[in-house]
Amino acid sequence: MLKLCGLQMSNYYNKVKIALIEKGVSFKEETAMISQDPAFLARSPLGKIPFLDLGNGQTLCESQVILEYLEDAYPQVPLLPKDPLARARMRELIAVLELNFELVARRLYWAAFFGGPPPSEETKKEVRRELKKGLRAIRQLAKFSPYAAGTEFGWADCAAANHLPLVGEAVKAIFDEDVYGDYVASVNDYLRIVGERPSMKRTLDDRKAFIKNREGGREKGG
């Protein structure tokens, strides 16, 4: 049986988890932290999470690579359109979401979510500028009709349903403003619709429980 390894609070872990659930693939979950330990690197070459343990000593890392594998290995429930251009458009949207929006906002996460020192004014200025560029591209590429890339649930939703709320929370925590501005109604409507899917409900419930347990453990340890 496949084993998804990582942290249930991770947006990239949950991106893969949603795809597995949507496809009806049986899998187990293993809590794993990033590490440079040789034993861990044997399973995840860069010491990153998430990674997928295929059994028999085989693993795959990088969330998008894992989605590609799942699409090839379990084609019965497709999460990628048949049309070549539509497939490329979905990959394009994911690339923009992850490289030009979520990755930019990640510079705020340490302060926003983990009690780290506030980012410098220079960092905040850079992040604000790059987020505006990324959001402009998302507004151009995303359909939200009702799903991120069109009428069918797919890869883009596995990504967007996790990344969009997290970026919003980080920006609110650091800048005390809504990163989506006049686009917020479209984003919220989309998140409400996608949040009604069983795969998303299960993933969100598991994420909340995981965070609650970690916080409870820290309180007991302190």
Provide a descriptive summary of the structure in words.
The protein is built from 9 helices and 4 strands; from the N terminus they run βαβαββααααααα. It has 2 domains: 2-73, Glutaredoxin; 84-213, Glutathione S-transferase Yfyf (Class Pi), Chain A, domain 2 (Up-down Bundle), CATH 1.20.1050.10. The protein has a 4-stranded mixed sheet, with helices on one face. The chain is an alpha+beta fold and 222 residues long. The longest helix has 24 residues, at 198-221. The termini are far apart. It is globular. A hairpin with a 2-residue loop joins strand 3 and strand 4 (58-61). The relative contact order is 0.13.
Distance between the termini: 37 Å
Reported for the largest beta sheet, the result is: 4 strands, mixed
> Which architecture of the largest domain per CATH?
Up-down Bundle
Overall radius of gyration: 18 Å
Shape: globular
Helix and strand pattern:
EHEHEEHHHHHHH
As for the number of domains, it is 2
Mean pLDDT level: 96
CATH class of the largest domain: Mainly Alpha
> Could you list the spans in which at least 5 consecutive residues all have pLDDT below 50?
none
Q: Write out the strand line-up for the largest beta sheet, numbering strands in chain order.
A: 2-1-3-4
Q: Work out the number of β strands.
A: 4
Tally of helical runs: 9
**CATH topology grouping of the largest domain:** Glutathione S-transferase Yfyf (Class Pi), Chain A, domain 2
Helix content: 55-70%
